[in-house]
């Protein structure tokens, strides 16, 4: 087909143009106190680079930074606080949000390669007492 030429004068700029805000490490941090759709879209929008991240707090208070690449949204009622974990310890990790869960599919632990949740859970013991900050 033929492309239609557009007269440059027809395209008008409304208002003053501003540069986009810079993306920093702190702006890529996941806030679990938000609706599931917003968290899901945040993770999807930052994957694969610069990557959404969060911290996993262990029972002894250690904080482990974790990058999250793929997730799914599950809007359903629950009694967990945002950031609390639901897992079987083998195949899935669901993280509580305001109106449901964010199911994590692929993630990356520090100094490790990107892995599926099932692969991570084979070598990393994760209990429901841990939480994402």
From TrEMBL:
One of its GO terms (cellular component) is cytosol. SUPFAM superfamilies: FMT C-terminal domain-like (SSF50486). Signal peptide: none annotated. Keywords: Protein biosynthesis, Transferase. Residues 22-125 form the Formyl transferase C-terminal domain. GO terms for molecular function: methionyl-tRNA formyltransferase activity. This is Formyl transferase C-terminal domain-containing protein. It comes from termite gut metagenome.
């Amino acid at each position: 087909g033929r492309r239609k030429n557009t007269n440059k004068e027809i395209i008008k700029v409304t208002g003053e143009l501003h540069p986009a805000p810079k993306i920093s490490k702190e702006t890529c941090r996941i806030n679990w106190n938000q609706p599931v759709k917003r968290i899901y879209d945040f993770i999807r929008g930052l994957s694969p680079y610069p990557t959404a991240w969060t911290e996993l707090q262990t029972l002894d208070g250690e904080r482990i930074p974790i990058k999250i690449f793929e997730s799914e949204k599950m809007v359903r009622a629950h009694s967990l606080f945002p950031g609390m974990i639901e897992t079987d310890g083998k195949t899935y990790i669901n993280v509580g949000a305001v109106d449901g869960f964010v199911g994590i599919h692929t993630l990356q632990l520090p100094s490790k390669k990107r892995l599926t949740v099932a692969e991570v859970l084979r070598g990393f013991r994760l209990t429901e007492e841990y939480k994402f900050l």
